Amino acid sequence: MLSKVGSFRFYIESYVCDFTAKATLPVVSNFILDAASIHAQQRGFGFSEISKDNVAWVLSRISIEMNEYPDHNQHITVETWIETVSRFFTQRCFRFVADDDRVLGYSRTIWAAIDMDTRRPIDIPAWRPDLLDYLVPETEKLCPIDKLAKIPSVENAAPSMGYSVRYSDIDINKHMNSVKYIEHVLNVFDLNFFKEKFIRKFEMVYLEEGMFGDKLKLYLQQISDTEYVIDTKKGADSVCRSRIIWQAKQ
Q1: Per-residue confidence (pLDDT) for residue 107, from 0 to 100
Q2: Residue 157 pLDDT more than 90?
Q3: 195 CB-near residues (< 8 Å, 6+ apart)
Q4: DSSP reduced 3-state for 249
Q5: Of 41, 38, 39, whose CA–CA distance to 50 is shortest?
Q6: Closest Cα partner for 108 from 65, 57, 45, 152?
Q7: How far is CA 89 from CA 58, 109, 166, 197, in A?
Q8: Closest among 207, 205, 202, 215 to 239, alpha carbons compared
Q9: 159, HSE (Cβ side, Cα atoms, 13 Å)
Q10: Residue 248 has what pLDDT?
Q11: pLDDT for res 145
């Protein structure tokens, strides 16, 4: 059996950096998806294997806490492991490490396995009991960030921006890619935010699938000097909700 913890190295090319010459939050999020995909594929429960059962892994929640973002020309190692498996969800954790062994941050994610015809979650332990062989409990490897908390809806606010889901937003599961939601959320903020601050903590809960042609609107609410909530809606229904904690640059 392969090791329970996967470790994958990525290189920060110039084209994945923003004007600060650092990798962006969406790039870090893509590393999360890549590491999760490779880890699952190597252990027999990745896309090519589970698609035979007409099943797909779908990201339900994500929380990312970064001490700093990797620089241009830097390598980053992404470690990932499965912390829990319940009836309908698995919790997968991540640690981001620089080449000098500095810990750049951590992430917690929650995944559902859905039937591609009904789009409904399936009973994970009944479907794939072998996932339990790869559990790494907190007592063995700690992911020292808060558990995923509820994100409130935004009410009685004018939309900050809107967009229609187009071809470039759609992934292999025929719905809006998880990272595309994040990219659109960040576009709500003025460039000065990114000049003066960095995203210390980001949380998102995915509530409904975004499909091609959907017209979405983003509603922004400031909670405090550092905390903002963004509610992405299709009509009156929330498609996803996000919480961002900003921190001033040193």
Answers
A1: 98
A2: no
A3: 20
A4: coil
A5: 41
A6: 65
A7: 10, 10, 29, 34
A8: 207
A9: 14
A10: 95
A11: 92
Residue 41 tokens read as 């594929």
pLDDT the model gives residue 34: 97
140 and 162 share a domain?
Answer: no
Residue whose C-alpha is closest to residue 8's, from 92, 81, 59: 81
CA-nearest of 212, 116, 117 to 169 is 212
Q: 56 lies in which domain range?
A: 1-148
| 86 and 156 assigned to the same domain | no
- Cα separation, 20 vs 12, whole angstroms: 13
Helix ranges (DSSP H) in the chain: 25-42, 47-50, 124-127, 178-186, 191-196
Predicted local confidence at residue 148, as pLDDT: 81
CA distances from 62 to 93, 121, 212, 215 (A): 10, 18, 23, 23
The owner of tokens 């650092």 is: 22
Query: Do residue 169 and residue 241 come from a single domain?
Result: yes
CATH number, domain with residue 250: 3.10.129.10
Burial zone of 41 (CB within 10 Å; 0-12 exposed, 13-18 middle, 19+ buried): middle
Considering 119, 148, 177, which residue would you say is the last residue of a domain?
A: 148
Give how many domains the chain has, as a whole number.
Answer: 2
Percentage of the chain lying above the pLDDT 90 cut? 93
Tokens of 35: 């590491």
Count of alpha carbons within 13 angstroms of residue 219, beta-carbon side: 18
| Angle separating helix axes 178-186 and 25-42, nearest 10 degrees | 170
Regarding whether 106 and 161 lie in a shared domain, the answer is no
